[in-house]
Amino acid sequence: MTRKTYFFILSLFIVANVFAQEKPIFLNNASFEGEPNSSAFVSDWETCIVSGVPRKVNQPALLPGPFGVNLYAIDGDTYMGLMVRDNNTWESVSQKLTAPLESQWCYLFQLALAQSDYFINHSALQNQQTQFNTPISLKIYGGNDECSKKELLAETSPVNHYEWDSYTFYLCPSENYTYLTLEAYYVDDKAMTYPNGHILIDDASPLYPLPYSFGEIEWDKIPKSEYLSIEDIEQYEMLVEDYGQKVRFEGTNLPYFIYLDGYNGVRYGNLYFDAIAGALENFEAAELVVAVKPDTEGNTKKRISELKNVFREIGIQAYQYTIKAADKLANEDKWLVENDFIKMKVYK
Hints:
Blueprint: E1 3-7, E2 46-47, E3 61-63, E4 79-84, E5 92-101, E6 105-114, E7 120-123, E8 128-131, E9 134-135, E10 137-143, E11 151-155, E12 165-171, E13 177-185, E14 197-202, E15 208-213, E16 216-217, H1 233-244, E17 257-260, E18 266-269, H2 271-279, E19 287-292, H3 300-314, E20 321-325, E21 337-338, E22 342-347
Parallel strand pairs: 1-12, 9-14, 19-20
Antiparallel strand pairs: 2-5, 3-4, 4-14, 5-13, 6-12, 6-14, 6-15, 7-8, 10-11, 10-13, 15-16, 17-18, 19-22, 21-22
Helix pairs in contact: 1-2, 2-3
């Protein structure tokens, strides 16, 4: 799946806050799950009404299945289809955000988009079944009411590919907004006639706030992994020794923050333990041993579970790591790294 990037740039005179304190905004039902239907209620998304068009007519589709569309979902089981029609009507959906978009940030946002090579629907203008296969655009708006189009934050060129592509948007609002709206729209809205078309949408990412000032994203303010590629076990030990010193807990959890991986991909997690756990995948014969020190509030078991979950999410085999309370590993010696929270060593 290739990546496309669209930047709707705005000139703002704003100084970014302390970046590491910000959290992503997670969308509800970001993979557009539900029962496939040609006119569907998409959970957590509100259907926007076009003047004079009944809501049922303007409901989005949940696919695959309806209209003869059989493209697989890239995330979960279903995805959403939005249409434009030859009678000058189009579909859009809106969601109230769990936290507002704020004007001092740009937000990285990703969607998987595609078109189907087959999409048969009824044309009200022609009064017959026809292909809705004209490539169309997706527009992304911010607003403070359901379906509000107060500000156009981004739009795509015509989506004309039959496989999923990942599109990356940088949404830089000039005001604070509490709603996000996704709208299918004609490529040429000044044409004398309107085509029938559609766009398929899946796998919406969280909205990642990025520091923004003087019309530019301040990439240098975002924490970044210093390790691009770990190719031998000695390098891995250096990584563990370096980043292991920076692993800590806040209560029972690792502190999460937005960071850049070694390939400048935006991630949300704990940079230091993510890097240690992820690089272990390259060394099937190695084992990482982690001793979790006790704390005064009895959080040891939950902290062990937190670390194990990182390995499971990445897909590291269970035999490649041992994570126990420090008193259960009292006979171990020659630790590679130790701080107030953990001890680590690597068996080659």
